[in-house]
Amino acid sequence: MTNGYPENGRGSSNPRTLPQLSIATATGRGTAVTQQRENRRTRIIRSDPSLAGHFRGTPHTDIEGRSVVSGRIARRRILRVAGCGLVAGAGAAGALQWSAPGAQQSARRGRFTARPAKDAPAEAFVHIMAHADDSLYFMNPELEQCLRGGAPVVTVCMTGGESDGRNALSLSPGYAGLPERRPDFARARINGLREATAYMVTGDWLSPWHVEPLTLLPGFRVESQTLVAAPRVQLIFMELVEARALRTPRRDSLRGLWLGATRDLPTLMPTASPVGRVFRYTREQVIDSLAAVLERHRPTVVRTLDPNPTRLPRQPHYAGVPPVLQGIATYDHQDHTASAHFAQAALARYWGRGPARLTAVDSYLGYEVALLPDSLDAATTARKAAVLDVYGWVGGRNCGDPAGCGDRKVGARSKDSRWTSNLRHRAPGARSWVAPLPGGRLAAFAVLGGQAHCWTETGAGSGVWSGPVPLGGSLLEGQVEALRHADGTLGLFSVRTVLPAPGVPHRREVVTAAQTGTVSAGAPAFGPWLSLGAPEKDPSGSLEMGYPVAVTGRDGRVFVFVRNRSGGVSFRSTDGSGEWEAWRSLPPGPGRPVAVRDGLDAAVDDAGRVHVVAAGLRTVHHWRSAEPGGPPRPAGPTLLPAATGPLSLVAVPGGGMRLALREPVTSRVIVADLRPGGAGWRVTAQCAPIGGYGRVALAREGTLTVLAARDDAGLVRLSAGSGRPGPWLGGGVPHRGTAALTRDSRGRVVAVVLGMDGRLGSARVRGTGGGAVADWVTHDGGVLDDPLMS
């Protein structure tokens, strides 16, 4: 049935019928709401680097006036392109807005025109989450960028998120006396999500939705909502009962169902639900329902919450908990983790049922980000907060539904939360996933559909790729690292998840595959994937292991480094005969043990010494081997500032090292050098802010330094300079993961990205500084249009 609000702004008198959703509220309260929206128009964000420290706690303080939910934020993306400069001269204003590539503002009252669905969409997105606000907190700005990009976007909310049924902050006066109305609160959260989604797509939070029951499995119905202005945008609500507690084990919860503590889990029917009755799902039926969504929409990208959150340093004790519900307490919400596990199982089932569209999977950290440095700049944080204000019913605007128009437990708090000022993927992005082949062609590797895949250039320097060709692997996750050995062959490294089954514990392990030769057209062929295990023997500890980074020493020994459960760095290495030695840990050095974030990097200097770097909460940690082929040891304090997370490290001719990182709060790219002769680390360049987040690719070829970084619109931006980085080049293309930088057969630095459609784009850098040029070409050699100029 069609869901809309009547023009008088009141809900339907039939409690089984959703109120009408019409934006033509020309009388009564509707006029007042419309006028209020226009009176509170959000003003232009001024991004000032000098306010960076202030933004740590209050990321909204650079907005003139309130960033209210109904204001129309200008969508034109204004860029000030300035170069990377020496530290003394750094400082420039960044982008004023982030938006999807190609997003444009309608001239009429600042509204957006919803981009029509693509005729034959090359990309499609499915988001699987536990609660109605999860994607708004933990997947934005990537969520809005895909919503504005014209591709089909489906969001599945697994629980009703009913909590205690009180739609108010727990510290509000009189909170304890409020009635517990869980069906109403579940409906209010649904309303908040669809209003925030409509706001992101069209600019109008009251843009109407078509609501109907949907059958994913025989005998079961879920609530489906489709945005009328953009039918490619759909919300699906399964409405399973939530845990109603952050960590306290409960039998009737997603976690209880996943662990087998309960045979089935009921739904909680929101007020005026179209599904008609309560359903009870078994574990297999939940997995089958999610797999049905995947089969129905055939996504190229699936986004989930974090399946492997970090455990609490002190484990709480819960008396009387049955053994099946006992387990590790983490920083994240138990519903978040369980929803990610169900998503993994559904993906495995979907991939196992036969040929499927190649699918990339991205997982996002949840509550844990509150403990980490801000990874987003002020402008991006402000936009996220504005969207969350819509969800949180800030201003008490009237949507016509007596159940509520949003989630007041969120309210206006988002601007003060590090959940809002962060976006972090569980997989930090491979820093080396493109490698040269004998003969000068390039090979690229990525995880799609749970397997490693390989693309090969059809000719050296052509920029035209064949593939992708599957290389095996089972439930590989996140990323794959490619390492070139001294003999020119390649080795691949990734992480595999083993889902729980009778007699099989839930665990993760590092895996590797070695090149065995070539196949037709000279593409590399690989042997079977072999397990290298994990630093922790305890299966539950292996779930917290990071992603591998590998290097080859001058003597041919291979080192593989990962973040371990305790926050240190562990490694395995080969001996003189090529056999793998046991896991060992890098010593922490004097003082307190280090606690590093994932996204570490390693490189070998001109003398053959292995260097490892990793970001802690306050500084960057550095290990270095004393002699070629030896294990790295603490190299002393770097005295470098904190980084948002993933690092990139390359050797500099003469025995030095160069490091690229992002500065917290501003997201500015910073370059630091380790001078030969023990002079220590020194920050040598700060690049003009372009927003963005995540790992910055770094390459050094002779005197040329090249950077590739994500900007505030989700585009990869390049910088090329002699000696130090040059200005950011204009243009850029959408991508997922981390860009790769490598050298082609002619000695040119090549940037390669993987698109949301599972196809590659590449650019060869010519020139330096203001005269640098990099033209992006498609998988098949065609010219990639510049989304900023379209």
TrEMBL record:
The record's listing under InterPro entries reads: GlcNAc_PI_deacetylase-related (IPR003737), LmbE-like_dom_sf (IPR024078)
Pfam families (UniProt xref):
PIG-L
- Molecular function per GO: hydrolase activity, acting on carbon-nitrogen (but not peptide) bonds, in linear amides
GO BP: glycoside metabolic process
Q: Does the keyword Zinc apply?
A: yes
Q: Key word Zinc present in the record? A: yes
UniProt keywords (A-Z) are: Zinc
Name of this protein: PIG-L family deacetylase
Q: What is the organism lineage in this UniProt record?
A: Bacteria, Bacillati, Actinomycetota, Actinomycetes, Kitasatosporales
